[in-house]
Design a protein that fits this description.
Helices cover 28% and strands 31% of the residues. By secondary structure, it is α+β, with helices and mostly antiparallel strands.
Length: 244
């Protein structure tokens, strides 16, 4: 697949999902009615001098957050763009109704104290809602957010080197732009995943496209268990994937 992402970040995760073991499932019957899942990306701009304080507050707040919300990733950028940004990723399998209900439940919890309430720590918060691309469920070797278990503290995993690579593609406007991009992406993806020399700790977690927020934005989220060294090995290997 030709083209380059407009932005790429290497994220050091504070809370890590367990590696998934997804099995291909049968498609749902057309008669089943449900609200489509949505994924929320929240980005907190932290005052640089207050980063340690934010991490302390987030560590205290996250257990309560986890008891109400489907948090899948809490990370901080290490390289490749704006630093001092806390990245929260939530997967609401029940769609907008579930998101509204769970956020209301969290706000009503008397033990909940958001780190955003601390003065002088956070400069701003951005929220974008995404949908997981259909190719995630159809492509072997791609985990998908719905199959992840609750995240663990990185220190509990013994994976200090592990990073997540978040790539953002901002496409031109148009109703057919995202479907065309995902079609080309899906055709070339198996070649990239199977490229000789890809680091064994590298895996594609998910592919998302925006629904509420900046239009026509696509995100890839890759996991590299062996850190930036694994990321570089896998990127070099992908250049040999002809279909990609």
């Amino acid at each position: 697949m030709s083209g380059r992402p407009i932005a790429m970040r290497a994220l050091r995760s504070m809370y890590l999902p367990r590696r998934c073991n997804r099995q291909m499932s049968s498609p749902l019957s057309a008669s089943v009615t449900f609200s489509p899942p949505v994924v929320e990306l929240e980005e907190y701009d932290i005052v640089p001098s207050q980063m340690k304080e934010y991490m302390h507050l987030a560590a205290k707040a996250t257990p309560v957050r986890l008891s109400h919300l489907p948090l899948r990733l809490l990370s901080f950028p290490e390289a490749g763009g704006k630093l001092n940004v806390a990245t929260h990723l939530y997967n609401y399998s029940g769609g907008h109704p579930e998101r509204n209900r769970q956020r209301d439940e969290l706000a009503a919890d008397p033990t909940w104290t958001t780190e955003a309430s601390a003065p002088g720590v956070i400069q701003g918060i951005r929220s974008t809602l995404f949908v997981e691309a259909p190719l995630v469920a159809k492509t072997e070797g791609v985990c998908g957010l719905s199959e992840m278990e609750l995240p663990l503290m990185q220190s509990d995993r013994g994976e200090k080197a592990c990073i997540y690579e978040l790539r953002r593609y901002r496409l031109r406007l148009g109703y057919d732009t995202v479907p065309k991009f995902l079609k080309l992406y899906g055709e070339g993806l198996p070649s990239k995943l199977a490229a000789e020399g890809t680091d064994p700790t590298t895996s594609l977690t998910t592919v998302l496209y925006s629904e509420v927020g900046p239009l026509n934005e696509v995100i890839e989220l890759w996991r590299h268990g062996d850190g930036t060294a694994a990321m570089e090995r896998s990127r070099v290997a992908a250049r040999g994937a002809n279909q990609w």
